[in-house]
Here is the input.
Amino acid sequence: MDAAQFSLTIYHLFPDLLNLYGDKGNIAVLTKRCAWRGIDAQVQALTEGQEPDFGGADIVLLGGGSNREQLLLSRYRSVVAPPLKEYVENGGVLLAVCAGFQMLGTSYEADGEQIDCFGILDYQTVSGEGRLIGNIAIEAELGGKRMVLAGFENHGGRTKIGDLRPLGRVICGFGNDGESGYEGVVYKNTVATYLHGPLLPKNPELADFLIHTALQRKYPGTFAEGLSCLDDSAEQAAKNFIIERELKGDNK
Amino acid sequence: MDLERIKLMLAVWASRLVMLLCRIARFRGSALPGKYALRLCPAFLAAAAAQVRKKIIVVCGTNGKTTTNNLIASAAELEGFAVVCNRAGANMLNGIAAAFAQKMDFLGRLDCDYACIEADEATLPLLFDHFTADVICATNLFRDQLDRYGEIDIASALLKKAFDKAPDAVYVLNADDPVTSVFGNDRQAYYYGIMQNTALVCCDEVRDGGSCQLCGQPLCYDYYNYGQLGRYRCAGCGCQNPLISVGADAIYIKDGELDFDIVNTGGLAGVPPEAHIHSGVAGLYNVYNMLAAYCVCAVAGVCPAAAAEAMAVQQPEPGRMSRFEIGGKCVYLVLSKNPTGFNQSVTSVLNDCRPKDLLLVLNDNAQDGEDISWIWDVDFESLMDSGAHCTITGQRRYDMYLRLKYAGYEQDRLWVKDDITSALAKMLESDKNVYYALVNYTAMYPAYVALTKLAQKGVL
Here is the structure.
């Protein structure tokens, strides 16, 4: 089948509020990795004051922001949460990062201030003593493939995901709460993680999982053998640098 | 002689000894001597500050601290005042203590009219436990080293905490920055700003402070100068650029030269109605630095004419557009340590029409900020049209390579090298005559040394 007939729409939620840590990188990686395979990728943004429309969305992104911006975002709860919940339950592909991860839960108690989150998944976040900051590597399994993901985390909130499935196990770093050894959450085709900002450039496996899942959902019966391979040697070099240095415990 | 005086003297002796040893060992430690001073005499900073005869001036903010603070110090020195200044930009407690210790005699006596101190955001609340300032200048707040401060709101909270400890200070604030100008509410404050839409060739930026600091509503902008600096108004609570005391008008930037007028718009005593400024250090950010320094001088009792004179002879701080001549080629070294600063560097490159190539150096040491996510907020896409080739090095060279790869740079325009020497050699191989080296904090000094060596050799 000719790839040119395939297209995906990336729906970026509130880029004007949740854009703290270079989320632009995730958009660039998704669109470029589609384009390099001849798949057309369009980006649409949901901005403040607009009616959400998940009808044409194939991959939804929810990025990082500060507590203050999360509080502003919670004003849109009644407008955004119902259609987003329906999208997630129907198996829509969603990547939620950092503040986005927290916003998918039911609530975030930030230094005594209660922030109403979207309540898409049943977990809570509570801020703890000190922030959990640093490079992080996790061992994850997505779509039956094992992969090591590396990135940077920076969060004051501790998230307890209860019986939900974590994205992975922490190799080095803090993860959801700094104690359980778990990182992120996976529910149907939703992936949420504290690996913040531009996590896809260094983790092309995750980017391709999102693209592949979105394509299979939109075009059933296609891409059974997966996506065509790309040269990811620079991506792996960037990732391995972090993992090797952290595992060595080497302070540079 | 009381015990405190003995401790103070010991502190001065110890730090001077460490300074001497550092010099002998050719170790570039601008903060280390202060560490020993504070260890031996915890009240060292208070004892030093108490001896300042006229004013203690503190400059804080994300970008422009060092340049602004050094301009103020130079102006005061030109007027014949004795000045203490942490010129090298060592802006935590140890570095500030070292600056005082260096100017003390061996009895712990300080001959100082003005202390010009730049302070790091996280240090400021601690510093004000030792002494407070008479004049405080906040230049701006941008996203910077997020892994140290968490979020821009945390940096803002740190400043507020510090300012609450200095209720009697006079504040000098950037009217065009909606994030820091609100610090003037309920405080005695003077503001500076740019009076025109400069409309330079600009790049796309992610902007902080897009919503009102007071009520949270989105801000409406007539125009941006850079970052979130510009002409804004809040539709919710009506807050907008405060009225300025000094403003910049008729700004003209070309081929690395800068001309503009500083206008006295607020009736500040002792300030002429208009002063023309010429500088060899271009960049809109430098206009803000100069306005800030000019306004601080006027408020602190330093003659503004001396400030204007200091600006005219201003040499760039190392790595702030330092120029190197190497075998007939010209290399500019530009410290680019956070997205706003980096985008200003990109703007400088874009406004230079000569054909050029680039060197990019990205480290992630503690002083750089270990989180390098911000490179994705830099507009490398606009740079791509310049056709420049990029040589990349530094600890996080592969992350920088990915940034450019996903910006759409063809692979034959990019080279990755393991160290600064081979990266410079590779870059200078091309047939261009102009180069820009954009480097972050800990990459700056090694790049400066390597470029100085090449410039001294004079040939490639």
